[in-house]
Design brief:
Blueprint: H1 2-10, H2 13-23, H3 27-37, H4 59-73, H5 81-88, H6 91-103, H7 108-116, H8 127-134, H9 138-147, H10 150-153, H11 156-163, H12 167-176, H13 186-191
Helix pairs in contact: 2-3, 3-4, 6-7, 7-8
Length: 192
């Protein structure tokens, strides 16, 4: 019982309020407060947690949740969720959060950059590049390259190679950057 009391006292106020709202059946309020609580880490915030719950959420619910965030932040230094995100997130994380808030999803270019956004290899989502690029045929990969913001991140190949943390990962990226021939239309594949 004492451990539970110590644990509860160690939670941020937003986390406690989110738990209360969830317990009362207020899912939208709980999600809103949980996203705010994600910014309240002493050592390391949960940057993804500040907007990830918005992914796949219906438009009307997403707008209500963001409104609940704004209500909860109205009397703080932030004032609203956008100011919170601008202050707490780096540019890639902000792009992802804004896309989640606007559309409920993150485009594949931003998702790839976000997955590789790391400090000394910490925070990297090593499976995401394989998930994104591995699903693309050579033609789809060329279309992806055309959308890739090389002016911002450099050529796609160089970007990925700079994010590889081992020779094996660099080799995997080189293979992925050829496109997945198994994803090609069988008729087109037979023409090769």
């Amino acid at each position: 019982l004492e451990f539970r009391r110590v644990l509860f006292r160690s939670l941020s106020e937003s986390t406690k309020r989110a738990a209360d709202l969830f317990a009362m059946g207020d899912k939208e309020g709980g999600i809103a407060l949980r996203m705010i609580a994600a910014s309240e880490g002493w050592v390391n915030d949960d940057e993804d947690g500040m907007s990830k719950p918005l992914e796949g959420m219906p438009d009307d619910m997403r707008k209500r949740v963001l409104g609940r965030m704004d209500e909860a932040l109205a009397d703080t230094a932030y004032g609203n969720h956008e100011a919170l995100w601008r202050d707490e997130l780096d540019q890639v994380e902000l792009d992802a959060a804004t896309a989640r808030g606007d559309k409920g999803k993150v485009d594949d270019v931003t998702a790839l950059v976000l997955a590789c956004d790391t400090t000394l290899g910490f925070g990297k989502d090593a499976a995401k590049p394989r998930e994104i690029l591995g699903a693309m045929s050579p033609k789809q990969l060329e279309e992806f390259r055309a959308r890739w913001p090389a002016g911002k991140y450099g050529p796609l190949d160089e970007f990925l190679n700079s994010k590889a943390t081992s020779k094996g990962e660099a080799r995997d990226y080189a293979i992925l950057l050829q496109g997945n021939y198994a994803k090609m239309d069988p008729v087109e594949l037979n023409k090769l």
